């Protein structure tokens, strides 16, 4: 019986282009399922295919113990399992293999087709061998999708729940913007240009902090491209997200000034122990510095790592005079 089962394993492994151990595990799981159904057993069963026959063990907290089952019953149930349960277990094994191939792609861009849109607006995406979920929270707010649409997203996470794998996608994560920039700007991929930080308000605006190993090279110009030729396709992919590229500097005061662009910053007072800075801008430019719904200053906070307290020049002077 075991000899026949081993032949079956080798044959299926060859036909399905699967590792022998994967097929063997699927068959042993199928036998375990058949025995549990027949004997109404709830405990976990460990099935071993040994030369002298099939061995089954009950697995409990205190250890493993042989299951009292006759060779005749074992052969009957194994034959049944090979016909009825094996295909189900094999499908699970093939599915698992498909998901495991995507583990190495975590943090990279994947391409798929929208297969279903759920009531909660989560999207089921067909990636070919497997499916993935693009949750509502990971979708760019202004975008809408329909079944059949092609979609590009970051493979955010490969997780396993209740024995099944699930792929989670994102179009809002900062790393998605980074990967898109890598596609358009080879110098980022090669390391000539380094992306120091990215902050996004998905679909609205983003700030990207860049530096160059070669001081003669303008990293902003390289990333933006001639007449915006490199940054434009990235912005288009992100539903028109306005992407501002900023040159990094070790001078934190200067970095803060650059981060609040397009507003002109006239004065900065650093409070290092709080990692906070008080920033003065012309009164008429205060709304520009803060941005719509505070977006400009929020993004500046994220890419600098400092909390920026932005105020008019008049309020800045008043605050400093109180300290004198």
UniProtKB/TrEMBL annotation:
S1 motif domain mapped to chain residues: 107-172
UniProt cross-references to SMART domains, sorted A to Z: S1
InterPro entries, A to Z: KH_dom-like_a/b, KH_NusA_2nd, KH_sf_prok-type, NA-bd_OB-fold, NusA_N_sf, S1_domain, TF_NusA, TF_NusA_bacterial
Compartment list: Cytoplasm
GO cellular component labels: cytosol
One of the Pfam families matching this protein, by short name: KH_NusA_1st
PANTHER family on file: TRANSCRIPTION TERMINATION FACTOR NUSA, TRANSCRIPTION TERMINATION_ANTITERMINATION PROTEIN NUSA
NCBIfam families: NusA
UniProt-recorded name of the protein: Transcription termination/antitermination protein NusA
Organism encoding this protein: Thermocrinis minervae
């Amino acid at each position: 019986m075991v000899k026949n089962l081993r032949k079956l394993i080798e044959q299926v492994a060859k036909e399905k282009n699967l590792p022998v151990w994967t097929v063997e595990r699927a068959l042993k799981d199928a036998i375990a399922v058949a025995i549990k159904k027949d004997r109404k057993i709830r405990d976990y069963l460990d099935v071993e295919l040994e030369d002298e026959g099939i061995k089954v063990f009950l697995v409990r907290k205190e250890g493993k113990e042989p299951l009292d089952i006759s060779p005749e019953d074992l052969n009957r149930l194994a034959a049944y399992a090979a016909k009825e349960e094996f295909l189900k277990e094999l499908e699970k094994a093939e599915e698992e293999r498909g998901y495991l191939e995507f583990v190495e792609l975590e943090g990279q861009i994947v391409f798929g087709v929208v297969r279903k849109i759920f009531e909660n607006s989560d999207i089921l995406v067909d990636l070919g061998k497997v499916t993935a979920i693009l949750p509502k929270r990971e979708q760019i707010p202004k975008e809408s999708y329909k079944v059949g649409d092609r979609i590009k997203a970051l493979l955010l996470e490969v997780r396993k729940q209740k024995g099944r794998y699930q792929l989670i996608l994102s179009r809002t994560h900062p790393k998605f913007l980074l990967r898109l920039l890598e596609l358009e700007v080879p110098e980022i991929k090669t390391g000539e240009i380094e992306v120091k930080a990215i902050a996004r308000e998905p679909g609205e605006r983003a700030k990207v902090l860049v530096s160059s190993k070669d001081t003669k090279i303008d990293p902003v110009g390289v990333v933006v491209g001639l007449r915006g030729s490199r940054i434009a396709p990235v912005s288009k992919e992100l539903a028109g997200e306005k992407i501002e590229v900023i040159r990094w500097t070790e001078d934190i005061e200067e970095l803060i000034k650059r981060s609040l662009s397009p507003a002109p910053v006239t004065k900065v007072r650093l409070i290092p122990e709080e990692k906070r800075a008080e920033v003065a801008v012309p009164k008429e430019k205060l709304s520009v510095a803060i941005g719509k719904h505070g977006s400009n200053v929020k993004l500046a906070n994220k890419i600098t790592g400092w909390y920026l307290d932005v105020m008019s020049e008049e309020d800045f002077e008043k605050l400093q005079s109180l300290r004198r």
